[in-house]
């Protein structure tokens, strides 16, 4: 069952497919995985032969570093199928570069570009039936790296696994999204790992998010840990604010994930003649604009949900609702991105990538 | 091979022991594990029957939350054997309370006290031959909890594993320890998870620590992320500074681990008539004292190494050496703690606990 490409990518195909057991109209995000996975081991200072194997459990020592010291980074990407059954990725080189940037910050080895792209393309083509046509349908792709070396010593591991798993997806968020602006808890420290897509950054948000949910919010918008005066980003998305006709978003720094959707939103908005300002945004500014009725939109940007319009926000003990616009920036920009992703429009940016 | 105690603790004994393969005089810290492990699953809102089983690999889905979102907490404890073959723990209730505090902050379920103590005692008695007599020898105990539920959705898992593994240990640090005082990178944010013993806090330190190692330091002493003016703690230990005859250490807060050794050092030092001040300690204060020759000691406190004397420190581009004292506070206090831990002295504090 094994065969080899020029790159020494070993492929072991699944004997049977699980695809007929899956209800593609009722997918909970990230819960069903395709028939295959990509896996590559780092041992003795190098990445060994990458493999595609049937999706399966990992057998891993209880002392593996990832469980104790959290050396773990990941990416989130999507594959889209167009009307001609062609499969597309969106700016995948940026995801590749970012996972290596994350790895570097976590003292983990970087992964070779050819392994990544060859592995990913082979995997997608093998599991292509799992990618359904139609706007909103996609295959969510989760590359991740974990420190697998046994041993409970608090130092970088010498053994890792680079893995890609894929989950068919519809839309990420159901229902209306209200956000709570953080005034006590925080997500990342200056000089810390907030800009890395590392596992620990996410668990750190769960408890404060749980508290926010108890108050009726779905997500937290984090502020700077130092003063809580400046808006940074949400749990899994960057955040934009529209005051009057101006679109504001925070600059990236070592506390904020440099979102690929964020960059795309900025470029598309500018191209559409929208006045975009990338600068520190004060909580107060947003609250004052909301009071005056000038705060027209808040939306999040991220691979999972593309653009998530926010219907209201809370800060300290006050809550504000946002107006319902018919010509929201969020809708216009979302449509432009989706059209590129699904190969329904020209792509003058060169963002689309054939898998 | 299974039998059951009143607490429904299931015990499956290993068929053979690995103990004869182990060179107890040449143990690398945390790399060899005993014959058994404790494991308990959290499913459907409750902790199931706890088990002791032969030490073995975990079989875990690649989408398990711990790999992606870092829900993982742990503890570090030690068991000591006295001259009469009795096994002792040191303030274990504090470790138990702390792992639950860490779990709470990471939105993970707390673990029942009886399960923890029954499981731990049974495990230690089963693997008691792995605990060697003699000062410095001990069994390092690693309780930890990981989110095992499959699914790449960024929200708290509903399935967890509470595990205890044990590694025979000699001393933790070899050689002299020089520390670098952080002036750019940081360990924890105010409002973040620094006070939790959660996996991600450790990986976050590896890269800056690597940079410090390249400059000739073994560890980093973290400062507040906001101003870098105040000394906080080191990677796996709290830090004490002796200026003249005064012993200084930072107060705990939501960025600092509330160390059990730290608390013990403070209490013992006070009892020995040492003037202890628990208050924010400025980097400048230490540098000025070093310049004047008043900085007599720096030492770290933590379960693994008990007390680690620091022989020198670096700050920005300067380096200072510390004097070699014959009657160092660090030695006096270390001896007092070891005597309690190894049942060589009275324990008026009630810290010793028979396993
Ligand atoms: C913390 C955080 N911010 C922002 C984003 C959005 O980034 P991207 O647009 O690259 O998906 C993500 C994840 O996808 C994230 O995890
Ligand atoms: C970050 C950190 N600080 C301090 C300590 C010392 O705590 P304790 O004395 O309870 O072992 C540890 C670990 O043990 C630690 O991981």
TrEMBL record, chains A, B:
Cofactor: pyridoxal 5'-phosphate
GO molecular function, one term: branched-chain-amino-acid transaminase activity
Enzyme's top EC category: transferase
Pfam families: Aminotran_4
EC number(s) given by UniProt: 2.6.1.42
Record pathway: Amino-acid biosynthesis; L-valine biosynthesis; L-valine from pyruvate: step 4/4; Amino-acid biosynthesis; L-isoleucine biosynthesis; L-isoleucine from 2-oxobutanoate: step 4/4; Amino-acid biosynthesis; L-leucine biosynthesis; L-leucine from 3-methyl-2-oxobutanoate: step 4/4
Catalyzed reactions per annotation: L-valine + 2-oxoglutarate = 3-methyl-2-oxobutanoate + L-glutamate; L-leucine + 2-oxoglutarate = 4-methyl-2-oxopentanoate + L-glutamate; L-isoleucine + 2-oxoglutarate = (S)-3-methyl-2-oxopentanoate + L-glutamate
Keywords, sorted A to Z: Amino-acid biosynthesis, Aminotransferase, Branched-chain amino acid biosynthesis, Pyridoxal phosphate, Transferase
Top-rank lineage group of the source organism: Bacteria
Regions annotated as coiled coil: none
One annotated GO biological process: amino acid biosynthetic process
PROSITE patterns for the chain: AA_TRANSFER_CLASS_4 (PS00770)
Chain positions with N6-(pyridoxal phosphate)lysine modification: 197
Keyword rRNA processing: no
UniProt record similarity statement: Belongs to the class-IV pyridoxal-phosphate-dependent aminotransferase family.
Record function comment: Acts on leucine, isoleucine and valine.
Cross-referenced PANTHER family: BRANCHED-CHAIN-AMINO-ACID AMINOTRANSFERASE, SUBGROUP IIII AMINOTRANSFERASE
Protein name, UniProt field: Branched-chain-amino-acid aminotransferase
